[in-house]
Design brief:
The chain has about 250 residues and is of the alpha/beta class. It has 5 helices and 12 strands.
Length: about 250
């Protein structure tokens, strides 16, 4: 899946599974806060499915389609990551606030994480639960991966706020290290309380085959987040989770 990268100078169409771009639109002139996205970017089988906002300008891909014209860092090459956006399209949508659903927002979050990690060389699978899979079936899809991450948004009484990372009640030392790495990155990115790393009996994590490290991330409380701030926090938390994954895997 191709993806978009927005920097201070341009909007880039990034090559699927790579860290180089195949086309770009410069942000110039008086309307730097506006950009027209070429419709041709959304034709064919490799339309962009996510956008990442970063300060780093990417290199151009070579015309031949081989290696990028400028050396890039791909520290996650060979690593396999499975992402589970909490609550699928069927049935329970999870937390709901201001017309936003946990199911919809975590899918956006997962696609952002996927784009970042693919640019770093990882193979990333998103479990888009359109078939109403059970939690046991979802967790089992983590077999053979280097890590499994279930992404969720919390909800309580519209006042409690914070982020937390959960591991299974019988989680391994690797689970704990993995959760801690993500928790620390969320703490650096979101100005909300850190509710820490917790052990809990969770069916989806229990079903992930050992020894695959598995965590469930509650990035923030959706019902306590202003509607106009949700997109920003989804972006920031996705970047934080991706950094935590990379830190753990490298």
């Amino acid at each position: 899946m191709a993806w978009l990268r927005l920097t201070k100078t341009a909007l880039y169409l990034m090559k699927s599974g790579d860290a180089c771009y195949v086309d770009k639109v410069n942000l110039t002139g008086e309307k730097r806060n506006q950009v027209r996205i070429p419709t041709k970017w959304f034709t064919g089988n490799d339309a962009p499915g996510a956008m990442v906002i970063e300060d780093i300008e990417p290199p151009a891909c070579s015309i031949s389609g081989g290696s990028p014209s400028t050396p890039t860092t791909r520290p996650l090459t060979g690593k396999k990551v499975v992402l589970d956006p909490g609550h699928g399209e069927d049935g329970d949508k999870g937390a709901i606030s201001g017309g936003r659903t946990e199911a919809g927002e975590t899918l956006k979050q997962a696609r952002l994480i996927q784009g970042i990690l693919q640019a770093r060389g990882a193979s990333v699978t998103i479990v888009e639960n359109t078939r109403n899979l059970s939690l046991d079936q979802i967790g089992a899809l983590g077999a053979g991966a280097d890590c499994f991450v279930s992404v969720h948004l919390n909800s309580f009484n519209q006042t409690v706020q914070g982020h937390e990372v959960l591991i299974d009640r019988n989680g391994t030392d690797a689970d704990l290290r993995f959760a801690t790495a993500i928790s620390q990155e969320l703490d650096r990115s979101l100005d909300i309380p850190n509710r820490g790393v917790k052990r809990q009996g969770l069916a989806v994590l229990r079903a992930v085959p050992l020894p695959v490290p598995a965590v469930l991330v509650e990035s923030f409380f959706l019902d306590a987040t202003p509607t106009n701030q949700v997109d920003e926090w989804i972006q920031k938390s996705a970047q934080a989770i991706a950094r935590g994954i990379e830190q753990f895997l490298t």
